[in-house]
């Protein structure tokens, strides 16, 4: 699979997961309960950043 495509998918997934986390936190009024969404988004972004630096 194309490495650029994987990087774009990782970046998009990290953005989507963070938006979902913010939305659920506002709707449910529970940031701590949705902490795992923020961490998944952060891990996806860190993986994207690592892959981008490694490929450069």
TL;DR of this structure?
By secondary structure, the chain is an all-alpha fold.
Characterization of the model:
α1 (3-28) packs antiparallel against α2. 12% of the residues are buried. With 56 residues, this protein is mostly helical. It is built from two helices and no strands. The model has no long low-confidence stretch (mean pLDDT 94). The longest helix is centred in the first third of the chain and has 26 residues, at 3-28. It has one domain (3-55). Keywords: Membrane, Transmembrane, Transmembrane helix.
Q: Can you lay out the helices and strands and say which pair or pack?
A:
Blueprint: H1 3-28, H2 35-55
Helix pairs in contact: 1-2
- Radius of gyration, CA atoms, in whole angstroms: 13 Å
General form? elongated
Give the biggest beta sheet: none
Portion of residues in helices?
A: over 70%
Order of helices and strands: HH
Mean pLDDT: 94
Q: Give the terminus-to-terminus CA distance.
A: 18 Å
Structural category? mainly alpha
Tally of DSSP β-strands: 0
DSSP helical segment count: 2
Low-confidence stretches: none
Instruction: Work out the strand percent.
Output: under 5%
In the residues, how many domains can be counted? 1
Keywords: Membrane, Transmembrane, Transmembrane helix
Transmembrane segments: 5-26, 32-50
Keywords:
0% strand, mainly alpha, single chain, 84% helix, 56 residues
